[in-house]
Amino acid sequence: MIRVALVEDYLPQIQRMEEILNQIQHDEKLNLQITVFQDGETFSSMPPHSFDLALLDIQMDKMDGMQAAAKIRKQDEDLIIIFITNLAQYAIQGYAVQAMDFILKPVNPVLFKEKLMKAIRRIERKQKEKRISIKTTQGWVWLKMDEICYVEIVSRHLEIHTDTQVLCCSEPLQNLQALLDERFFRCHVAYLVNMDYVKQVYKTTVRVGKDELLVSKYRRKEFMDALTKHVGRSL
């Protein structure tokens, strides 16, 4: 999931941007969580790292987009900012807050999609590189999400399978799953698989890396739908 803040004070423009975003989301099989703010002050008061991407109008009452970006940038260096403005000269000011890009109103959907997808690819790369901390029987371990092939429930503990090792963990699977992103799907009560590692799906099993795992008949359709969507996003 990619968390998007749409910061705009003009209702027709909000509706237009939501239409464009929803169409792109449908066409590109994205999972965007879009939150609308109608002034920069409310947006900039959100906790740091609440969003991955901000689409910021510049000319707004209370606090304009440039001021809001400057305020939030002091606390959040990772947020990707794209300004939406009527005036091209504001683009130069955007460098002061490390804005990724800007787009002129009226928004051209084709051009906007190009810029949005560029931002999303950057966010996805960061998410794949994100490390999570896991308390194992050997102590705390920090793993990149893309290092995990699958997680297996064995007796009363978890076995976390990577390409190079198997780590034991006593955390409930639900707790670990909450730390992981949408690449991971629970295809069976005993298995949580990273769909990046799925090589082949059979009638009752799935090959994940070098291993063949069970797929629940009750979850197979949902798993296949999720896998199809995931593969489509990767093309």
Automatic annotation (TrEMBL):
Keyword DNA-binding appears in the UniProt entry: yes
Entry's transmembrane regions: none
Keyword list, A-Z: DNA-binding, Phosphoprotein
Top-level taxon: Bacteria
Gene Ontology molecular functions: DNA binding; phosphorelay response regulator activity
UniProt-listed InterPro entries: CheY-like_superfamily (IPR011006), LytR-like (IPR046947), LytTR_DNA-bd_dom (IPR007492), Sig_transdc_resp-reg_receiver (IPR001789)
Start and end residues of each HTH LytTR-type domain: 132-229
Keyword set includes DNA-binding: yes
SUPFAM superfamilies the UniProt entry points to: CheY-like
Domain Response regulatory: 3-120
Entry-annotated residues carrying 4-aspartylphosphate: 57
Protein's name according to its UniProt entry: DNA-binding response regulator
Pfam families (UniProt xref): LytTR (PF04397), Response_reg (PF00072)
